[in-house]
């Protein structure tokens, strides 16, 4: 049954059928051929129970927050400010790509939105200043992946919802690995540009007073992040309430910088509707598929398969990592999460692993899927913003950053405290 479902999934995706529809079709197929009971009768109740959850309301709020910051011009000002602080490093403006993605990730919650924002702002600078298009675009694609690791992350909200894990704890757990990945991306850029200086373009320095003035552009974003995450960690607001406060704060910031207009609000709301509709369709369809898979006994079949391999707990994690790397080549990231979580997480937790730690490990693997062909969404987003050149340039440019993610996967397995230290300290345990 496992192989039949996998073949069906890949075959339907190859036909360019929307992911949510593919998941529904697989659910109907499993129900018809593998499930001993006619589960289709409960579809309406399942759709309602899945979507009727207050936690999921945080998703459109965080999407709207990111849309407002992009369309009001705040992202452009952030990029310009960070340019003045990091362009002296080997690699120059490439570091501003990563730094801006890190800052924007702390408010947007979405990797694709982060990559699109930075690409739109940064790409005009690449040719003008003589940067290698591969490294420059690859850094943007990789930096964009931080949007689902650094809180507030939409993917972590979905993981917490599906596993009944504390979302504030997940947000805390993602902070250190997210920042470490950003620093790792910058370190790899430095090494590459020290070996091949011609790839890094022009290194620029700015007068210190100008650098200090640029910090004023960053203060609103830092305050917004502090308010959103601080209220969640202090217990003053749920993630949904904090997201609503964040939207209000984004509107105030946009007004202060003169970015508020009727068109800005209309475009932001329309973008939010499109993205949220896509996310909810995938979540609901995946819930139905997971329901049919559980009824058909896939969980037991997979458990028997893994037990037959005689794996140690560490061996099981390595197999899971390999599964996610392979599936990440072919399946869109949110779909990969919601399809596999109900099957994989119980197996991992049964071996004694912390579900919060595994959530962060999974997010790193999901990040990797965003920049590995043929389905790496961030690669296509960046290529779309370039409007010229070959897709292969973006793919090649992202390879060094995939290596950084693999290193982070290894570090998380060897040192789980990288993810668990902040949650344990701030929770008082």
UniProtKB/TrEMBL annotation:
Protein role: Part of the tripartite ATP-independent periplasmic (TRAP) transport system.
Organism: Dinoroseobacter shibae (strain DSM 16493 / NCIMB 14021 / DFL 12)
Record's keyword annotation contains Cell membrane: yes
Membrane topology type: Multi-pass membrane protein
Principal location listed in the UniProt entry: membrane
Family membership: Belongs to the TRAP transporter large permease family.
Keyword set, alphabetical order: Cell inner membrane, Cell membrane, Membrane, Transmembrane, Transmembrane helix, Transport
All copies of domain TRAP C4-dicarboxylate transport system permease DctM subunit, residue ranges: 9-417
Transmembrane segments: 12-34, 54-74, 135-158, 170-195, 215-236, 242-266, 278-298, 310-327, 334-350, 356-382, 394-422
Name of this protein: TRAP transporter large permease protein
Coiled-coil features, chain-numbered ranges: none
InterPro entries: DctM (IPR010656), TRAP_DctM (IPR004681)
PANTHER family per the UniProt record, alphabetical: C4-DICARBOXYLATE TRAP TRANSPORTER LARGE PERMEASE PROTEIN DCTM, SIALIC ACID TRAP TRANSPORTER PERMEASE PROTEIN SIAT-RELATED
Protein origin, superkingdom: Bacteria
Keyword flag Membrane: yes
Compartments reported by the entry: Cell inner membrane
Quaternary structure and partners: The complex comprises the extracytoplasmic solute receptor protein and the two transmembrane proteins.
Signal sequence bounds: none
Gene Ontology terms, MF aspect: transmembrane transporter activity
GO CC term, one of those recorded: plasma membrane
């Amino acid at each position: 049954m496992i192989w039949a479902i996998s073949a069906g999934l890949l075959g339907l995706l190859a036909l360019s059928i929307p992911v949510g529809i593919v998941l529904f079709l697989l659910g109907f197929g499993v129900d018809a051929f593998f499930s001993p009971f006619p589960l289709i009768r409960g579809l309406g109740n399942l759709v309602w129970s899945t979507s009727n959850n207050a936690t999921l309301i945080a998703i459109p709020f965080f999407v709207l927050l990111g849309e407002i910051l992009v369309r009001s011009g705040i992202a452009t000002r952030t990029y310009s400010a960070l340019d003045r602080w990091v362009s002296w490093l080997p690699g120059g403006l490439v570091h501003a790509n990563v730094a801006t993605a890190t800052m924007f990730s702390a408010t947007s919650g979405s990797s694709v939105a982060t990559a699109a924002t930075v690409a739109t702002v940064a790409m005009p600078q690449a040719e003008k200043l003589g940067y290698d298009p591969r490294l420059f675009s690859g850094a943007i694609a990789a930096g964009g992946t931080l949007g689902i690791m650094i809180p507030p992350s939409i993917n972590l909200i979905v993981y917490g919802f599906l596993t009944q894990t504390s979302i504030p704890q997940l947000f805390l757990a993602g902070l250190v690995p997210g920042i470490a990945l950003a620093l790792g991306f910058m370190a790899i850029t430095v090494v590459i540009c020290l070996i091949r200086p011609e790839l890094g373009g022009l290194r620029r320095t700015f007068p210190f007073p100008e650098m200090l003035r640029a910090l004023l552009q960053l203060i609103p974003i830092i305050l917004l992040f502090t308010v959103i995450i601080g209220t969640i960690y202090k217990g003053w607001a749920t993630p949904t309430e904090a997201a609503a406060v964040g939207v209000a704060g984004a509107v105030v910031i946009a007004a202060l910088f003169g970015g508020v207009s009727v068109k800005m609000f209309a475009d932001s709301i329309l973008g939010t509707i499109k993205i949220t509709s896509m996310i909810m369709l995938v979540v609901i369809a995946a819930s139905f598929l997971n329901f049919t898979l559980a009824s058909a006994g896939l969980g037991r079949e997979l458990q028997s398969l893994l037990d037959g391999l005689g794996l140690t707990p560490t061996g099981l994690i390595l197999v899971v990592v390999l599964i996610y790397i392979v599936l990440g080549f072919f399946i869109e990231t949110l779909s990969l999460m919601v399809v596999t979580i109900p099957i994989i997480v119980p197996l991992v937790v049964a071996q004694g692993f912390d579900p919060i730690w595994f959530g962060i490990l999974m997010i790193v693997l999901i990040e990797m899927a965003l920049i590995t062909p043929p389905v790496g969404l961030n690669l296509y987003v960046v290529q779309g913003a370039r409007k010229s050149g070959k897709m292969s340039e973006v793919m090649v440019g992202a390879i060094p950053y995939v290596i950084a993610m693999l290193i982070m996967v290894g570090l998380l397995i060897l040192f789980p405290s990288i993810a668990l230290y902040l949650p344990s300290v701030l929770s008082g345990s």
